[in-house]
Every structure is written in C-alpha cells, then in structure tokens.
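yo

u said u wanted the structure for the complex thing, so here. seqs first:
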Amino acid sequence: MSGDANPLSAVLDARDVARSFGDKQVLSGVDLQVGAGRVSALLGPNGAGKTTFLRILTGLLLAERGQVLVAGIDVGQDPMAARRHIGFFPSADRTFYLRLSGLENLAFFGRMYGIRRQEALARARRRLADVGLSDAVDQRVGTYSHGMQKRLSMARALLMDPPVLVIDEATDGLDPEGARRVQDLTRTIAGDGTAVIWTTQRLDEIRGFADAVTVLDRGRTTFQGTVEDLMLKSSARGYLLRLRLGEAMLDDGAVQRAGAALGDRGTLQRVGADREHFRLDLAQHAVLGEVLADISATGAVVLDCAQQRSELEESFLRLTTARV
Amino acid sequence: MTRARSGVLAEASKLGAFLRRDFLVRLSYRTALISDWINLFAQALVFSFVSKLVHPIHLAGVGRTTYIAYVTVGIAVAGFMALGLARLVSAIQQEQLLGTLESLMVTPTTASVVLLGSVVYDMIYVPIRTVVFLIIVSIVFNVSFAASGYVPAILILATFIPFVWGLGSIASASILTYRRGSGQIGLVTFALTFTSGAYFPLALFPSWVASLARLNPIAIAITGMRAQLIGDAGWHDALVTMAKLVPFSAITLLLGLYAFRLAMRRERRLGTLGLY
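structre next:
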C-alpha cells in the first residue's frame, strides 16, 4: 500500500513506521505518502495509533523503525529542519496562552520560527483574517469560544505557509457550520498546493473532501485508497423498515414470505417489541428499489425506510475492530 | 558569519519573544505582582522588630551593624534563591499544564531555548527585584549599606545567578521526568538556605554546619555580599568570593542543561511530553 501520491513527488513520505510502548505495539509498519495539493484522511477508532503516528510525523515522538520524510527532510535525523515545513493543528483544546490575545499568541509562535516581530505580527493578522477572527485579534484567548480556539489553531498551523499541514480532529466539538468552515478553509489551502493530513472520527465529513483515505486499526493499515474505494468495501447496507399488512401487523407467515422474496439479496429481521419495525440488510449487488418492490408484492406495505449506516460507516466498521 | 553561528543567534533572538510573553502574562496578574512586594516588605518589617531584640554583639565578625542590616542581605539572597528556583521549576510545569509545551516543541526551537525562554523573564526580574529591595529597605528602615559595596555585591549576585539557573534546570528535569518533586526541591532549598547564615550567624550553628557552609554556594554568596554591604571588604574580597562561586555556578549550570536535555529526549522517546 503506498497512499495517494507518487512517492517520488510526495511532500510527506512515511514508510514502515513502527512504534511500541512497553509490550504494546502501537504502530506496525505504517506507510503514507501525500502529494502537494492533496487531502489525505487518516481514519481509525480510538487506540488505532492515529495520534502516535501524527506525533512521529511532527517529531514529537521517535519512531522505532521506518522513516518519515517531510519535503525531503528526515524527521528522525533532523527534526528541527523538518518542523519548518510542518504546520500542526493539535486536537487538544488548550494549547495557547490564555492570558494573551490571539494576535500576541500567534506573533509569539511566529517568532519561534525565527522571524522578526513585525513580520510575525503581519503574518498573524493575515491568518487571523483568513480564519474569520479579525474582530477578536486583541481579545484574550481565554475568552474565545471553543470554535474560535479551533480557528486560532488553524491560523497558527498556517502561519508559516507550510508545505505540509497535519490536522488532528479539527472538527471535534464544532457545530456543523463551524466544521464546514474549517473544512472549506482546508480545501482552499490544499488548493494552493499544501499537502494535508486530516484525522477524524466523523466519517461522513471525508466524503467529497478527502482525496485519499487511510484506515488504521490497532496500528496496522487496513485500507488505503479513495473514498469511493472505501465505500465499495461495504459488504452490506443496513436499513430500518416499518412494515404493515394493511391495518394489521405482519404475522410470522407474512414475515417469512417477505424474507423469501429477498432471495440472496439480503435478510429481513424483526427488531424491537412493537412487531412493526424490521432490519433489512442488503448484499452489495442488491438494488434497494427492487427489493422494496418485491417485499410490497408479498402484500406487506412499506410505511418507512431509513438507512441505518452509510456505506462509509459500514466499510469503516468492517475494516476496524470497532462495533456499534 | 558561519551557518552554526547564525543558527545560535537565531535561537537566541527567540528569547526576546519569551520575555515579552511572560511580561504580558505577569502584567495581567496585577494583584499577584503587588502581593509579592507586600510580602517582601512585611517580612522585612517583622525582622525590623526582631532586630530591636538582637544585640549587635551576636553579629560579631560581620562588622559594626544591626540585625536588620544583617538579615536584609540574607532575605534578599534567600528570597532570590527561593523565588528564582520556584519560578524555574514551575515554568516548565506550567507549560505542561497549559498544554503549550507540545505546541512549542513542534516549532523549530531547541529544548535549551524552550527552557531558557521559559525562565528568561524571571532571570531578569528576580535579580532586579533583589537589588530594588535592598535599596528600598535601606531607605525605609534607615539601614546603612556601604555605597562602595553595591557594585561588587551585584557582581557577586551575578556570579551566583547561574548556580540558581542550574539548580532550577536540574529540578525542572526531575519534574519533567517524575511529574513530582516540588516538595523535595523545597526541602533541599530550605536546608541550603537555613544553613547558609541567611537569618542567623553561622557561629550559632554547630561547628560541622559552619564547616559545611564553606561548600554551600548560598552561604558563600550571602557572606560575600554582607562583607561588601555592611562590612569593610574591598574588591579583592569580592573577587575571591566570585572565584569560589564560579566553579559551583559553571558545574551546576552545565549539569542542569544536560539533565534537562536528557529529560526532554526521554520524553520524546516515550511520547509523554504533553502529559501531566
């Protein structure tokens, strides 16, 4: 598995990255390549090794095996030089000096990259405007809302126009509007040529957003490809049906007839105690409309049909050990 | 200019950013700033009353002086030591608690600059506080310090400062590694300060304490500064005191920086830097 980019042109190139803590193997030979202008999503349940992997990418943690190149620089060999090329958006809430203003915070972090104060201030103002915080530049960060702090994190990650942007659960705790805003900004940045690694547990947000997906489970890569490829990994789709037989409930015979009408296209099972709700699991080749028509032909009336999990979610669950 | 030298200068230039950051943060806690000065003067006020009970005969060997003059130098240096050490230790702890240490460590900034930067404000503020304290006490409590002794006393203090930085760095490294240890550090500081003659003449202690005090840098600094401010010592004595302090300061500072680097490397290897 090699990721979404040609290794020769990858701005971020991680190969065979392994790491353990004591007896616990947290990462076992993870590969990831991300090219300029690409958004690569990193998915995995809690404990999959995502954060450990990001910490190795940013040089906060040493890998026991493997190599990470950022803009051609080996992070393990020269972390200081590599960090000049990485913008990091941490998942933690409190990563700023709460008694200082947003502008002073960004200017301080800018100076940690060795630029002069005037330039740091100019960059900070520009980035604060980019994330929609122009009105809060002089406000203490301690008074910022959760969403504002997330946007400030994004502004800091972008401060030095890094070729690689590492984003750890940026939309965690944000309302849909805030999450969309951060995603739009990320897409714009990627459009300008930045390679983005985006970790998330919100599966649906990567649809139409990420160019490539890597799924980690217990420190191993269980999938690498496009979002569409990931969706195709779904073997079955689950739906919740509300069925009746005219005014009455379906008796056992009617349920058997409806189930038989499915053939090898799926299964129908009664759920709950009200005798009205059923779970329909469809195989990959089944067409929902045809299946519903065939169930109706047995005399059952389909009152409602709701998808229980998206294909993305089904694929994710198949590829990981997590279950809901 | 070589590349290495320009790299060192670029790193050093970041200290100004730390200085500004901590100045603004401290300024935002005005009450704490005022309380610090009130506490310092309250301590001096208490000792000014105690001074009335202590006959100068007990201060033999220091020169013709009063207890308030004697103890003020002790308070100044002991306070410098305690505050400097506490701030050095808490600086890194604070960064960990705030969650900002990892944010700093993902920037291209060396561990040594992060440590120095975290304490640079106090490295400047605490010595200034000490000197200002001595001047104000001499005016308010009518304590006469030898005017010619100020400059050599300040130079002795300057030679003593790296010892405090080094000790603070060792303590920081210990806190970074074990997440605990403030109590033990406080105990060591108390033992060093108490047996330094800061508050009582060393002659009042058992003879073995007085012997050990010759190896105690705080005792060396306090005795040297007292000799300059309330004794009859001259430049030669100041140079002898500084010569005694230099090895302590140099070794402790080098050990401190080395210990801190080791602690940071360990944290990076274990991946526990941001945890507290």
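Chain B has one domain: 15-270. Residues 15-270 of chain B form one domain.
cya
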